[in-house]
Amino acid sequence: MLAALWAAGGRALTPSDVQRELGTALARTTVTTILARLHEKGSVSRTRSGRGYAYLPVQDSPGLAARRMRTELDKSAADDRGTVLARFVSELKPEDEQLLRDLLGQAGEDGLSGGAGTAQDGGA
């Protein structure tokens, strides 16, 4: 669903539009239900369109991934955060670990540490 919304390039889509973009056999009611659930979770916004709604993604794909990662981290107990982050880093590919180090260094230099968000993470 989100892929269809992202592909629309900022144009709000109705459930029928999304159904057509996906090119699947999903019923319009199923598409409507999934979009409503994405709205409840804060992943999409909606505006009135006739008797129904048209939907827009709240964030791009990288921003949504960053938000999901932050949500999972926030679910962990305060004393487990270090363990969660350590395991996350230990499972990164070497090039991703280096990228993370570079981004952390850049954030420190720019005064962005502490969760201010950057353009690279979609502000999440």
From TrEMBL:
Record GO terms (molecular function): DNA binding
Keywords on record: DNA-binding, Transcription, Transcription regulation
Stretches that traverse the bilayer: none
Pfam families (UniProt xref): Penicillinase_R
Top-level taxon in the UniProt lineage: Bacteria
Transcription found in the keyword field: yes
Positions of region (Disordered): 104-124
Protein name: Predicted transcriptional regulator
Organism whose genome encodes this protein: Actinacidiphila guanduensis
